[in-house]
Amino acid sequence: MVRVLAQLMLNAGAFWLATALYPRALQLGGARTALVAGLVLGVVNLAVRPVLLVLTLPLRLVTLGVATLLVNALMLYLVAWLVGLRHGGLPDMVVLAALVSLFSLALNRMVGA
Predict the structure, then answer these.
(1) Global confidence as pTM
(2) What mean pLDDT comes out for the span 32-38?
(3) How many CB atoms lie within 10 A of CB 38?
(4) What is the band of 113 on the pLDDT scale with cuts at 50, 70, 90?
(5) H helices within the chain, ranges in order?
(6) Residue 26 — φ and ψ, nearest 5°?
(7) Beta-carbon neighbour count of residue 106 at 10 Å?
């Protein structure tokens, strides 16, 4: 349970860092909204993302995994819609998805999770 909460906090931190670096993609109101969006992102990644990854497997094989970035962008799009955040559109979400992935990887490596 503690590991899941730590992972959610790391994802919320990565989400906040990415939107702070690239605010054009999503407009967060503050730290509370970032935490809620990070929590929703964690739930969406647990529930919806595996299904989309299986459904897009042929496309991901053809594009050598680049289509995974599009799946991640769609997950962020879904989070923005569920939380009610203003966003810049799909191209901005793709950039944000790349940043969130990089920051999440870096934070997980730093913490050792």
Answers:
(1) 0.87
(2) 85
(3) 22
(4) low
(5) 2-21, 31-47, 49-55, 57-62, 67-83, 90-111
(6) -140, 145
(7) 13
